[in-house]
Amino acid sequence: MAEKTLILPASAADLEALARLDRHISREELFHSIARGRVLTAKSGARLTGWLRYNLFWDNTPFLNLLYILEEVRGLGIGGALLRLWEERMAQAGHRLVMTSTLSNEPAQQFYRSHGYRDAGCLLLEGEPAELFLTKRL
Q: What angle do CA 78, 10, 65 make, to 5 degrees?
């Protein structure tokens, strides 16, 4: 990981930058996710370099919705650091299983498998690549 990268919970001050960059969630939902403590940010100085956003699957199982690292800083270990911190926090909160998903045509599945995630099934939606579900026991 880059030496100067800090991983911190997102705050209200991060909302504008995250809303500009994260096109997979409405601004309102992002606001609520930040308020619930469900967004972690990676920052180099004041610059946002990545973030992790999660929710609860079935209202009880942590589900990583998005892990995104800016292209120019990929490969520096930031994604792995965000993932490890999130997993530690989930374990401290008493969770014994975490989940995520990725499309079958995306390379992210290799990243998750390299961090101990195992295939747990898939969702097939008409006209789209399979959505692979992965889990990890903590």
A: 65
Sheet architecture: strand order including 47-57: 5-9, 39-44, 47-57, 61-69, 97-103, 131-137, 118-123
Q: Round to whole Å and give the CA distance between 35 and 11.
A: 8
- The pLDDT of residue 4 is 83
Nearest-CA neighbor of 52 among 104, 94, 112?
112
Cα 25 from Cα 45, distance rounded (Å): 25
Say if pTM beats, i.e. exceeds, 0.90.
yes
Other residues' Cβ atoms within 10 Å of the Cβ of residue 43: 19
Residue in 116, 123, 81 with CA at minimum distance from that of residue 101: 123
